[in-house]
Known about the structure:
Bound molecules: zinc ion
CATH superfamily: Ribonuclease Z/Hydroxyacylglutathione hydrolase-like
Structural class: alpha/beta
Amino acid sequence: MAPLPAPVPWTQPLPEASPPAELAIHHLPTGTYVTRAALAVKGGSFGDKRHFASSAVLVRHPQGDLLIDAGFGAGVAAHIAMLPRFVRAPYETGQTVSTQLDAAGYDRRRLLGVLPTHSHWDHVSGLDGLRDTPIWMNANERAYAASDPDGKVFRSVSEGHEIHQYGFEARPYLGFASSYDVHGDGSVVIALAGGHTTGSVIVFVVLPSGRRYAFIGDLTWQIDGIRRRVERPWLLSKLADSDPEQLRQGLGRMIAVDGLMQIVPAHDLGSYEGIPLLQPV
Ligand SMILES: [Zn+2]
């Protein structure tokens, strides 16, 4: 299967950032579910099963912390039961984000919000344990989540939550036309990617060391999508993506910066390597 054409590598300077010394990130894995490789990337074999991670990432900043995605919640069984039968998959759960925060003695008043990369069930199930934390959404994703059949779990689990709607500025970031610099210091920047859902985002984080991360949600499900430049199989893309062409453009932009930052597709457990877990204080 032909890979996407290789984009021109990014040669301009990377966007400026002055992250505070306290900025840190943590990986909060909450479980996995099984998807066959044949369904995950073009050219994947049917017998090869992939364990899809469902994780959250805590971004700590002196002006307030954010959780990127929410992982599996305590109600994950009920959430999966709400899905159409053909997408239900065997899954294994670990500790929820809520449990991990409490085990670490984490003060939730530090949380500005939970920022889902998009509103699909496997990214928002854990909102059920984060009732007092606002959900950060952009207008596009709010509209998608309110009406799309794939927003069903979100609509249920977000009930009673405060929604904090953030907006984008017409400030290009690594080829994406719209971005939002959360703290104004370039350390945490949300870029509108669209494609998978209408309001899908990528969260770019720059650590004090200068190390950069791109949390790309479901732009691709596995890092193969970046390294081998392969897309989702046609049928799955048809089912899963709201705008395949926009998705392809976003994928191209991320392929162009591969090697300049650690790219983390939400469901690729290996791509979180090196990000520390949240330890008890
Ligand atoms: Zn997903």
